[in-house]
């Protein structure tokens, strides 16, 4: 079964709105939480990542919020633009116990930003 | 710039055929991975490799095999393709900061 549960499966947001994608995990050994962005016909690419020693990380219009006690983290896309339309994957890794760097991916969220 | 390349990009084959998907990288990374992507299931790890002598099974390796011909080349084979192997396949490399770099993918259809 998937070690990282992602929701929603899809969402539609108007241009200028906020897109929010949530992920939850059970393995407390996870200590690295990246988000990947995938455009149609392309491979996923790293968007932003966070480690559990901080509760929030912001890069431009993209923010990760991290709640260690709840074992949840989320991606917020502020002022969503049509160019943000893509599939977003959350992922998790235990750097301390997995030297192979095997990421556990969520199921993905397809985001559509309407003009 | 295509740091991770995959060939072919699309392939249609028939049940029982042997198929090889190829991956090459110019990033100089040791660690390479093969994933398959299915709608609603995300990316699942098939095989991973640290170097040419180190190959490891991922969570869904049954029905697949791999070959690491060189640091830069990692191939995935389906010895006898079946319809439920129809999927999007990605090769990836990893750097020392745990960032993974994905190729453009191969869309495989098994009839």
Spans where pLDDT lies below 50 across 5 or more residues of chain A: none
How would a crystallographer describe the biggest sheet of chain B?
A: 7 strands, mixed
Largest interface: A-B, 24 and 24 residues
- SS summary, helix count of chain B: 0
Strand content of chain A: over 45%
What would the principal axes of the Cα set say about the shape of chain B? globular
String of helices and strands of chain A? EEEEEEEEEEE
Q: Percent of residues of chain B in helical segments?
A: under 10%
- The global form of chain A is globular
> Oligomerization state of this entry?
heterodimer
Distance between the termini of chain A: 37 Å
Q: What is the CA-CA span between the terminal residues of chain B?
A: 33 Å
Q: What does the main sheet of chain A amount to?
A: 6 strands, mixed
Number of strands of chain B: 11
Low-confidence stretches of chain B: none
Tell me, rounded to a whole number, the average pLDDT of chain A: 94
DSSP E strands of chain A, number: 11
What is the radius of gyration of chain B computed over CA atoms, rounded to a whole number of angstroms? 13 Å
Describe this structure in words.
The complex is a heterodimer of chains A (115) and B (111). In chain A, 0% of the residues lie in helices and 51% in strands. Chain A has 115 residues and is mostly beta strands. In chain A, strands 2, 4, 5, 9, 10 and 11 form a 6-stranded mixed sheet that branches. Chain A is globular. Chain A starts with a strand and ends with a strand. Chain B is an all-beta fold and 111 residues long. In chain B, 0% of the residues lie in helices and 59% in strands. Chain B has no helices and 11 strands. Chain B has strands at 4-7, 10-13, 19-25, 31-38, 42-51, 54-57, 65-70, 73-78, 87-94, 100-102, 106-110. The model of chain B has no long low-confidence stretch (mean pLDDT 95). The chains are: A mainly beta (115), B mainly beta (111). The A-B interface holds A 2, 6, 9, 32, 34, 36, 41-46, 49, 89, 93, 95, 100-103, 105-108 and B 4, 31, 33, 40-45, 48, 50, 56, 58, 90, 92, 94, 98-105.
